[in-house]
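Q: Hi! Curious about what Glycosyl transferase looks like structurally. Here's the sequence.
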Amino acid sequence: MKFGHFDDAQKEYVITSPRTPLPWINYLGCENFFSLVSNTCGGYSFYKDAKLLRLTRYRYNNVPLDSNGHYYYIKDGGTVWNPGWMPTKTELDSYECRHGMGYSVFKGSKNGLTAELTDFVPMGSTCEINKLTLKNTTTDTKEFSVFSYVEFCLWNAMDDMTNFQRNFSTGEVEIHADGSQLFHKTEYRERRNHYAVYAVNAPVAGFDTDRDSFLGAYGENSAPAVVTNGESKNSVASGWSPIGSHHLKVTLAPGEEKTYIFVLGYVENPVAEKWIGRPEDGVINRAPADALLAKFDTTEKVDAALADLKAYWNNLLGHFTISSSEEKLDRMVNIWHQYQCMVTFNMSRSASYFESGIGRGMGFRDSCQDLLGFVHLIPDRARERILDIAATQFEDGSAYHQYQPLTKKGNADIGSGFNDDPLWLIAGAAAYIKETGDYSILDEMTPYDSDPSKATDFMEHLRRSFNYTVKHLGPHGLPQIGRADWNDCLNLNCFSEEPGESFQTFGPSEGPNAESVFIAGMFVKYGKDYVEICKHRGLDAEAKEAEEAIHKMEATVLDAGWDGEWFLRAYDHYKNKVGSKECEEGKIFIEPQGFCVIAEIGLKEGNCLKAMQSVEKYLDTKYGIVLLQPAYHRYHVELGEISSYPPGYKENAGIFCHNNPWISIAETVVGRGNRAWQVYTRTCPAYIEDISEIHRTEPYVYSQMIAGKDAPNFGEAKNSWLTGTAAWTFLDVSQYILGIRPDYDGLVIDPCIPSHMDGFTAKREFRGVTYHITVKNPSHVEKGVAKTIVDGKEIAGNMIPAADVTGSDVNVEVIMG
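A: Let's find out. The predicted structure is below.
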């Protein structure tokens, strides 16, 4: 069942029913100010940091679901309705939500009155714009009221939801311009450097800034007392819960329409001596707010800002485009894959409808992987991100697992000990250098633990990342897993005195012995990149030493990490196998099959193909590949959190979408294009839009998890938007299935496509040059390049050397065979 459709020409998903299985959201904002908005106008806003600078409140576990947002109530006679349906849930005569690139448009109609709400965050400004256009489609004059509504958060979202004894007494507002400008200044008395403004570009009939006054005693968002009564109370919040609400009285002649501009903005006071007491303390400095509001006080200015936003996205997404016989493939590659990658760049795992924005901040591993999907779009910002990540590393090569985006400092509450983290830094750095050819990043002086007094060049950070694995090997010579590897729920350094007793975890100083075959695969894969970087730096002896360590690890994996038909997952602290045919449950895991094959461990010996065949035999389902089989049906203290989930959910045999593309990529390594395509399409949003009633999350972006075959709700997704799946699936489809892959010395064209495809064309901007690529598959093979022609001349191999002339065009023709 569908609840809408794609509009590829406009780069939009059009939702035609407000009753989607879950809220289907969009992200507004490309720089510092962000808003999340659902298809029924639910959501919230923040500046830079979803925890520390939250402008508006959201209640994740509220009932009814998604009932707090930025709302516009229309009171037309005895009927009250919203353009986005919520929160009144009045049945509309028509409804439509269009989620586009950085904007959303809501269209609703009721009783001959239409309302169109355009919602976006403009480039270069710290605000959200709501453009509300009202039109009378009847033959009679209409007189009605519009009430706006936002509920302010008291900035620190965690404190806001917990510290009531203080916060019920701190809310402060100022009212200006006869109520059309409402200033939320809680914290201004204390800090004097920021406040929020909510304004409309028209005279108002009234306003409210106190939530209890607006809603009424025991009131709720679905029927605010002020709206029901048709008159604002001009309330001034003093403590309790400050809000922003404007009352507009509107008269429209037959066929007439009017537009109103509402602006929700974050404003910083530029006064340098903000910490010094002054006579005007407690009164906001309105000058920066006036300047902000003046930029968007007319419809023409707002329309121009929206045009600029659309031009930004058209330009950004134009760096990589394709055209093929597969409409859904083109849609995902040209629009939604890359758009989601940009959202993960901005958010990491911090703020969604499944992440509160309070706890996780930016992940070390997460941000390195996300970079794989956006480095071609914003290489300069990717460079900055890599150095920010590296600055949270410790001097021994380990790293904070998370850091806060506002402070760019590591999260001490989570700490370190995830032994895959260091290798992801090499992965991110290699991706950046391959894309840009910019080796100067290796010379950047970069701190450890965010301490400028402890800094080395970035190359030294990579060296310590590589050597961290070398120095932390277990009894079999495989990498120690630490607290966990990519799978945070696989905690193998756990022990208890007796079965069923509470358990402890070995700390680093206690020498945990649990080993990870997955990290071994990572070490081989990204160790090869480290070798190449060393060679480009002229560090030949170091490159040779690293190569020896990699070869030794390959041999170790084939000796101690191979289980006969697939790669083992790990060894626990007591040297027991995990992910082996010897295990009662959890016999085979997806992660080492993907990464050991991507690293080509045992490729010539046939191990890689056997591993892929085992994945297909034991882990495949119609909705994707499950993480492990059989599922754990009881709790295993020696395995940690993974078996705390019911069978079929999350890491316990759920379809973890993040590592499905690892298998698709691995299938391209063994040359099975049909199978790589099948794996890709089974979780690809555009290809599963028809089962939205089962899948439930948005049909235009990936989710982190789909319930596996052991779960009662097989096929149901959770945790949409903020997932490493976004980057990995784009990497899979662009660099391995389509095969257009940046490398250190140029662009590799090595497609591995399904045999039914005749080929495709692509435009790829790479190091300032535009490559126009035509791939032909006359023999309908799955993999193999018979001929490569560059600007009319055949070249040897399929590596196109990087062009020297910036701004030039290069024409490439590839014949598969």
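A: A fun detail: The chain is about 25% helix and 25% strand.
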